[in-house]
TrEMBL record, chains A, B:
Gene Ontology CC annotation, any one: early endosome
Chief location of this protein within or outside the cell: membrane
Protein name as it appears in the record: Chloride channel protein
GO function terms (MF aspect): antiporter activity; ATP binding; voltage-gated chloride channel activity
Gene: LOC115051576
Domain (CBS): residue spans on this chain: 643-707, 740-801
UniProt-listed InterPro entries: CBS_dom, CBS_dom_sf, Cl-channel_core, Cl_channel-4, ClC
Family statement drawn from the similarity comment of this UniProt entry: Belongs to the chloride channel (TC 2.A.49) family.
Amino acid sequence: MTQHVLGVKEFPIQQFMLFPEHPGTPNTVRSVSMRSSLAGVSGATPTEEMNGAGNLMDFLDEPFPDVGTYEDFHTIDWLREKSRDTDRHRKITSKSKESIWELIKSLLDAWSGWVVMLLIGLLSGTLAGVIDLAVDWMTDLKEGVCLSAFWYSHEQCCWTSNETTFDDRDKCPQWQKWAELMTGHAEGAGAYVLNYFLYILWALLFSFLAVSLVRVFAPYACGSGIPEIKTILSGFIIRGYLGKWTLLIKTVTLVLAVSSGLSLGKEGPLVHVACCCGNLFCSLFSKYSKNEGKRREVLSAAAAAGVSVAFGAPIGGVLFSLEEVSYYFPLKTLWRSFFAALVAAFTLRSINPFGNSRLVLFYVEYHTPWYMAELVPFILLGVFGGLWGTLFIRANIAWCRRRKTTQLGKYPVLEVIAVTGITAVLAYPNPYTRRSTSELISELFNDCGALESSQLCDYINNPNMSRPVDDIPDRPAGPGVYTALWQLALALIFKIVITIFTFGMKIPSGLFIPSMAVGAIAGRIVGIAVEQMAYHHHDWIIFKNWCRPGADCVTPGLYAMVGAAACLGGVTRMTVSLVVIMFELTGGLEYIVPLMAAAVTSKWVADAFGKEGIYESHIQLNGYPYLDVRDEFTHRTLATDVMRPRRNDPPLAVLTQDSTTVEDVETLIKDTDYNGFPVVVSRESERLIGFVQRRDLTLAIKNARQKQDGVVSSSVVYFTEDAPQLPASNPQPLKLRRILNLSPFTVTDHTPMETVVDIFRKLGLRQRCHVSLCLRRRLLGIITKKDVLRHMAQMMNQDPESIMFN
Amino acid sequence: MTQHVLGVKEFPIQQFMLFPEHPGTPNTVRSVSMRSSLAGVSGATPTEEMNGAGNLMDFLDEPFPDVGTYEDFHTIDWLREKSRDTDRHRKITSKSKESIWELIKSLLDAWSGWVVMLLIGLLSGTLAGVIDLAVDWMTDLKEGVCLSAFWYSHEQCCWTSNETTFDDRDKCPQWQKWAELMTGHAEGAGAYVLNYFLYILWALLFSFLAVSLVRVFAPYACGSGIPEIKTILSGFIIRGYLGKWTLLIKTVTLVLAVSSGLSLGKEGPLVHVACCCGNLFCSLFSKYSKNEGKRREVLSAAAAAGVSVAFGAPIGGVLFSLEEVSYYFPLKTLWRSFFAALVAAFTLRSINPFGNSRLVLFYVEYHTPWYMAELVPFILLGVFGGLWGTLFIRANIAWCRRRKTTQLGKYPVLEVIAVTGITAVLAYPNPYTRRSTSELISELFNDCGALESSQLCDYINNPNMSRPVDDIPDRPAGPGVYTALWQLALALIFKIVITIFTFGMKIPSGLFIPSMAVGAIAGRIVGIAVEQMAYHHHDWIIFKNWCRPGADCVTPGLYAMVGAAACLGGVTRMTVSLVVIMFELTGGLEYIVPLMAAAVTSKWVADAFGKEGIYESHIQLNGYPYLDVRDEFTHRTLATDVMRPRRNDPPLAVLTQDSTTVEDVETLIKDTDYNGFPVVVSRESERLIGFVQRRDLTLAIKNARQKQDGVVSSSVVYFTEDAPQLPASNPQPLKLRRILNLSPFTVTDHTPMETVVDIFRKLGLRQRCHVSLCLRRRLLGIITKKDVLRHMAQMMNQDPESIMFN
């Protein structure tokens, strides 16, 4: 069994060197050395002379502009980023001893991490608050308007009302439905149809605006964003994905999409928004903007802040980032994430969008403990959650693949309009789907108190019974509850079907809320069923021990919560972070066991049908080069089976240290599309001395041609420490040792792939090369991250061509 | 800045190969090849023939008994353990397709991890409950006895009493102090002296028993255990440290030590006890007992269960294990730790040792929010905590070093008796030190309710004021509070001094409770001061905004809690887990900001004086080979500066693949004390083919001499795939390819040490070797974990000789 390293949270290597454990048969290497030159080791130009230890560091000094940056859709080199940061830090520390000003600068640098966290917390908290307020207002706008101030939501409008009970408050005179406002009639078939029509119209308007904005201004703003953020955090570059435009457009369109009543949530997109904030603030500090590794530390923390504001659960947010999103998660990031998540949560609380001073999205308080026997329905809910997760992932991926491959994908606006139309038409008649999904979940989670006026709490009260506020015994269900059950069952089917088609459309769409809604509906139905069974059959053995007549044994709201956790777990395969988020919602350790039982069951059931959660499935669908830490690699293949070139492939493209001309290099760059090239001593010995990046090579040659006199196509490129003193008639040599990585990673060809995969996950080299160990120090081949992914996919019988990027 | 990888949580390499990036000067290698032999590649004995891919796996099949196990005080090879587990798993999976019985066995195997977790949770929860009950009873035994049933503690004794108020209950007639029982007088100087005397006597008896038991039966049961567990989890073998005897003796002596009234807690030792449980249950399943890597996964989870029962904080326990204790923490372990921690917490709750159905050790409920201005005293408490942490660590380490190096260390029993005597003599007169430390902390944390009768709540009430139960306005302090303040100040000084001398004695001693007590006392004093200031100076600008007359603005109990967090943070440098544990105690997100402010300040202040927490300091003091993930390595040295042999050292001891005799090998093993030897092709070419462990070599030769005919001292040892066909007159060859590791780790000599340290932390190879890259494929030298630690210590100007083990 391979061990699942905690979200690997370490440097992934991108490429790999390989050397044979045995003297192997000679392997032809396509060397571009066209001229044989007697590279003397003496005669260095004094200006270029370096001592051995300094070489690598000089390489990090970025001798040419842009050397050390990455191209779009390429993977970063974690170890290089780290070593650049260490170098930068070293410089600052040594400078800080020189003057007070430098000391202050070094202190500012040390604190910049915390400043970035503070800013991320403040901005993402503020944005979340604004989004909440706007969504509230616009959701209600679909039904009516506040006469006293049109920018008030239904709830805010009626705050000032004089009605005291909750029920009456809902019908305060300041708030008017559209039909009432337009025709003066609040009731009747005409009013209903008019309201229905306007509801659909508003929904279509919102969703049209959302999809148009996304298409025109920021195509990256669509979807949940979590699959892409996972990929970015694992070291991939997607330029613009976390840009300012994406931030702005995603915030606006998220409000529109959620308000349109589509079956989607704001949690995933909020993580994306928070990461955009993180990226924005990174650009303020060169420490983060110039180092892709450090930037990813900030982004991990930003993701935590995103979940923190989405649910009001800072600890859960940090664990979510740790468990689900992040790839490299050092202890320092843990602490900073926590800080960012807390700042964000408190900023949100200060804005107080829910008007109740509560931090959490669904605040619940239960008054009854749970009993052992209830574990049976809880585990059944877990099974349901696992099945739902499997069904949803399979159906959604199938639909998304269809969208990608057929005509359907060409009309994203029409698709969104159509789905919104269907959603609105079907949702309006059912009171449980008409309202916003988070309101629905909130009501389902709620325990029926004495003052509750909801249809779900329509129980028949015993008139002789005194009614304490909290501890209400189980009662027989009234007609309202039965109606509610039917409506909920219909809502369940509707939600299950529509969510499959909604997730993946070209608008911001989160998955947490719809998944939780499905679970909460199922859970509440089960809860009411158990409650009524317990009430009507006190004498059954299972109820006898814990449910005396007149006691409050069953809390249907708890079932809803357990169901929500189960369904969310089935879809995302979150475990610890899910339970912690739920724990933060209830605030009591009391209910951790039911939640855990359901979450574990759901994960096991779902895992039995397929190991991948929805995010991993979408990563695979999109072909991102993501090396999942949870994929177990248990095959007995060796490095030699995976390395390139294969037996019948053309030989490996390498450079020689002192016999390649500029022209040769340019030809090689033009003819191949490799990310970099190993440098060997000579064509004959094929001994590896280092690895050079394609991008660095291109930039260095371009720079030299422009700025350095005498560098022409026939100039020899030297990777040695010293270039030979050439006669003046010869073209000037080009010395490129500074862009050479002198410590590439090597393994023998007999190394099990298991170890190779492990090293790829845990170390962050991008350089690739392999060196023969015996007789001749030959390069046997190269293993890149792409090779590893392709091999793993082959081993798992998946489509190897789905990995598109290198 | 080096990144702190989350508790590294990955495989650390133990040793390392090195090869030069350049053709270096020839380096003499002390080869033990005394005979030159023409090792033919043909002529393999058919029985020994293996295919290339199978080699490594065959090596894992443990060809000889004990091959693949480790000696005491050696470090494990994480990658080898992992690869063995993968192999085992692969076997079970392939077998499971054969029959239903094998399928059931494979399912049982897959579930054994969860079973172990369940058992650990149950046993550690039970033990914690028993310890709590026993400590309660024995602590009270020092003062008196219950007449109705001598095995009742004071509180249990008075439960059945008829007195209703809390104050009277304390003085129930069934409970008699010793003086009252013996002389019949409860009051007066004589009774006081007699009680005093008996208190000291009991304390001495308990501590004498504790230290004697530890000395006679289980020397490893002393101390907190966390430094050693950290070291064990990082891959070190300390046989018996987690054994059955240690478990039994530590449990018993922990009760005795805590009851004796010494300034120590049970939290650290509980982690040790839980880990012993983990180790115990590991031995039930060969999956865990035979694999040191898998065993460490279980131990990480057990540590989480230990903290979970110590504080009643399961999430905090998991985070503690993650942040503070564990080294390799895969996602699977996260989830299992959580399960174990929950089971343990619920087992403890079922035992209900505190008699209040509460899970947490210090349950608190505050009724007032905190105000922004209060952050100033909170941060001051953080500074105090940091200073206390620094003082404590320095003084304690100095004292422990003194104990190790001087005569003092030879009389552990006397030392314990002396410290107990002093503690008891000084503690009895002060009511705040006389009682158990956890009771003290509990009282200090408490908010003064209306029914509180404690001296700390002796405020002057306004007679005209109606007294609501919860929301009591600030009141002037009465004489009781002033007396309490003096006593607390004395208690603070006493605790600070005595804890320094207590921690590290030869009895089980935890550090959490004494640290928290120091912080809680300081915090409460500050809290009362602020409260009285706010009451008497309503008109000061800082109080004006938030503290109107008659309002309840300041909660001194919250200050105590913040102080406790600050001091604990200063000593242990915990951050997130500390805040989460505190959050679980209060159960409200409300107070996270004050706690975090104090914890961060305390960590920063303490870090300014020295990066190491108390556990790291003790690890260093004891010279354990622990590669701390939080040590930043920012020096510019290269692998070549660290490798052995150095320039003037004797050459590297290597074996040749086909020209070494059994006698040569035995001589080499006798003459050197290396953990293993590189195997090269021949003395001339010095090309590396693999690495062989000393232990495996010894075992293999011993085994061959006993069982294989014809193997004598002059037999040639072959590490090649095939041994040549020798004439019958020659001694039989010994084929040892199966114990050869064919994929040792190599780096070039120009690799920065930063990268090497990183690789050591993140991968788990134990093999060492280095190979020259150019011209000749030579081994340049070896870097072992020991070398790395020594180098890091040198770079930090620490005592390099303190690393004792290899």
